[in-house]
Structure formats: C-alpha cells, structure tokens
Amino acid sequence: MQQPFVELLQANARHADEFQSKFDDVQDSQRPEVVTVCCSDSRVLQDRMWENDEPGRIFTCGNIGNRVVQQTESGTVVSGDVLYPIEHTGTNVAVVVGHTGCGAVTATYDALTDGVSELAGIEHCLDLLKPQLEPGLELLPDDVDRAGSINRLVEYNVDRQVEFLRESDDVPDDVEVVGVVYDFQDVYSGRRGEVHVINVDGETDVETLRDDNPEVDSRIERLWEY
C-alpha cells in the first residue's frame, strides 16, 4: 500500500478510538437535521467546516459542482443523493455549498466560452452544469477579470441549484433551502474557511436576507446581485 493510504488508516484508528461511544444512538437509524450538497473539491472540508463530530447529524453529499440535478430517462430530476434524506429521514434543511475558485465551474466556463472538452466522465458532469451556468455568462460585469467571473458564476450556480430544489415537486414546501459559498481565497470579507450565506429559499437580496435573519447578518454577503 502507498504511504498516503497507510497514513489514512492510522488516522482512522485514532478516529475509532475517539468515536467508540458516539454511534450508540445511531446504530439502527438516522435522523439528520440537515443535508448538505458540497463540491467534492479536496479543499472543501465537508464536515469539518461545520465542526461536526456527531454521527447522524449531517447527511453529506458531494460531487463536482455541488449539483442537485441528476439526468434520468424521464428528464432532469433532483438527485437521489439529496432527495433520500428529505424523503426518508425527516430532514427539512438542505444546504447547497459552493466554494471560491471552483474547478467544476471553471471547467464549465471554459467549455462554454472556449469549447474546451474533458474526459467523458467529467464531460457528463459538466453537461449537467452547462444549462445552469450558460445564462449567467451574459450577466457577468464587463469590468471583472477571469477569477472574478468564476467566483460570480459560483454564486450563480448555487442560486440555480437552490432554485431547482425549490421548484421541484419532490421537495416539500416546508424544507428550507439555503445557498452558501465556502471561501478559502480571501474573496469575501470574512476569514478563510468561513461560509457566507447568499440565498435562502430563493431570496438573494442581501439587505432583505439580513433583515430577515439578524442573528447571522454578518455572515450574509454576495459578490453580485444580477
């Protein structure tokens, strides 16, 4: 075995020592409070960003581009990864987690603007993002550089994923859908590793969101309102 995996096993042994009793209440079932849909970028610490060390609390999904959509024979539907906890475990909060410098958004941007192609498996994922992102290209400000365009499209993608969940008949109306961006590039005004709320149930106006959510008003921030 290569050393990186050996080190993972060693870390897992320490994890098992610490978590022996933490699985007592979730041996036979789970009732996660939240389902998160994160980008599967190695820099996005999907549980660690919430300081989560409680098994059964967060149902975590990951894919490139933090997508909630899945293509089936009957068309585009909410991904089963996201829908399962909502349908079967009583989860009533869904959080779409984008992140600064997203590679999937970058690759989709390049595919749409320059016709750059990828390997078939990656291309399939990008094809699910392209319809979500393409309308946003025309809305980009003229005075932002490539990095600024990518990070604005990160927000745009989160908005579209939130919108898809809100409009789906498969997601009950009482499920709250929140869109956030995880920043490790000093793009937003907070510290590296902070999550910034950009969308709650389709509402994207920063001042409205701050008025409606005063307990977290300092964490509500957007790069653009198109």
TrEMBL record:
InterPro entries cross-referenced by the UniProt entry: Carbonic_anhydrase, Carbonic_anhydrase_sf
Name of this chain's protein: carbonic anhydrase
PANTHER family, sorted: CARBONIC ANHYDRASE
Transferase in keyword set: no
Positions that bind Zn(2+): C39, H99, C102
Natural source organism: Halogranum amylolyticum
Cofactor comment: Binds 1 zinc ion per subunit.
Cofactor: Zn(2+)
